[in-house]
């Protein structure tokens, strides 16, 4: 369950990640009879379901309007968050901002590889790629992020 939530939290807010995690396990229970060990491990199968739910979520979100905190200033005040929770929320938001320049495939590989802590072989199975391709995508994404961070640090010090 932690791996599923960690993967989803790379891409969406905490409440949405919690909802999608719950939805993932609802689908796992409903679809358990269709699981085939020959096609991959249980973990890989479950994370594939999570990835599909995330994709569906983004498709649905493209057609929804966003609630603005400018239009509803009381919304922020109504959310009770302890200090540690607030720190995690900012960290998760900072992480999503950091990963924003990556394309969807790069973000998904990074989220599965480092958030869900899957091996390259498992990520490959989830995404329908080769392990070598997963390594290449992850390496390219991390190089890009490192370059962005270094450029930001240089501009901050100037």
Structure description:
The chain has helices at 2-9, 14-31, 42-61, 74-78, 83-99, 104-115, 120-127, 131-157. The chain is an all-alpha fold and 158 residues long. Helix 1 packs across helix 2, helix 6 (104-115) crosses helix 8 and helix 7 (120-127) crosses helix 8. The termini are far apart.
Output mean pLDDT.
80
Radius of gyration of CA atoms, rounded to a whole number: 17 Å
- Helix run count: 8
Strand content: under 5%
- Secondary structure: helix percent: over 70%
Number of strands: 0
Specify the structural class. Answer: mainly alpha
Biggest pleated-sheet summary: none
Order of helices and strands: HHHHHHHH
Which regions are unreliable across 5 or more consecutive residues at pLDDT < 50?
Answer: 78-90
Cα separation of the termini: 44 Å
